[in-house]
Amino acid sequence: MSEDSNVSDISIRDEELRFFEYCERYIKTVEENASSLVEYKSFLNSPEVIEIRDKVRSEIGDHELSVEDIVTIYQSCGYEIAAQAALADSTSSLNSPWCQLLPHSSLYTLEYLSDIKVSTSTVWCSGILFFIAYFYFIYLIVSISWTSTIPSYRFCSMLTF
Predict the structure, then answer these.
(1) What is the pTM of this model?
(2) Nearest to 14 by CA among 124, 125, 151, 137
(3) Crossing angle for the helix pair 67-87 and 107-119, nearest 10 degrees?
(4) What is the spatial distance between Cα 51 and Cα 106, in angstroms, rounded to a whole number?
(5) Is the sign of the CA dihedral 99, 71, 24, 133 positive or negative?
(6) Percentages helix, strand, coil for the chain, rounded to the nearest 5?
(7) How far apart are CA 14 and CA 16, in angstroms?
C-alpha cells in the first residue's frame, strides 16, 4: 500500500457480495424453496445415515438422537479438531469427545452428506438455475465495471419476472 492510500476511503458493500442475506425475494425464491435441498434431505434420511444414528445411540446408551443430532455431532467434531489444529504444535495429537462418538467408518458418509448440502446451497442456489441469482450476478458485473448508483437491496425489489 502506498503512503497516499487512505484506508478510510474503502467502502464495505457487504449487501452486494452477500446479497442472499439481504434480499427478501432471494430468500423466499431460493433459500425457502423446498426443491433446493431435496437431495440433502433424501440422503439425510437414508439407511446409511440412520445406521450411523443407531450405532451412536447404542454406544451412548440408547438416548433419543435424530439424524440432525448426528450431523451436529459431526460438525462439532470438525470444528473442535480445526480449533485444536490451529493451536497445536506438530507433536500434539488431536482428539475430540465429539469425534469419539462417531464410528470411524461413518466419517465418509457424513462428509458426503455435508458435501451435498454445500453443493446444493452454493452451486444450485447461487447458480443460474434460479432466475433471481442470474440477475444478481449481472448486477455485480455491472457494479464492478461501473460505479452503480442503485444499491443492491433496491435492485432486488426492482426485479420482475
Answers:
(1) 0.60
(2) 151
(3) 100
(4) 9
(5) positive
(6) 70, 0, 30
(7) 5
Q: Report the C-alpha gap between 120 and 114 in whole angstroms.
A: 10
Q: Are 56 and 99 in contact (CB under 8 A)?
A: no
Contact assessment for residue 73 and residue 102, using Cβ atoms and an 8 Å cutoff: yes
| Domain range annotation of the chain | 13-33+130-161, 35-124
E strand or H helix that includes residue 24:
helix 24-26
CA torsion 26-46-101-89 (nearest 10°) is: -50
Q: Give pLDDT tens digits for 49-94.
A: 999 999 999 988 868 899 999 999 999 999 888 888 877 766 566 7
Least confident range from 30-34, 41-45, 118-122, 156-160: namely 156-160
CA–CA separation, 77 and 99 (whole Å): 5
Conformational region of residue 61, where left means phi above 0, alpha means psi within -120 to 50, and beta covers everything else: left
**How far apart are alpha carbons 118 and 116 in whole angstroms?**
6
**Cβ proximity of 52 and 102 under 8 Å:** yes
Residue indicated by cell numbers 458493500: 13
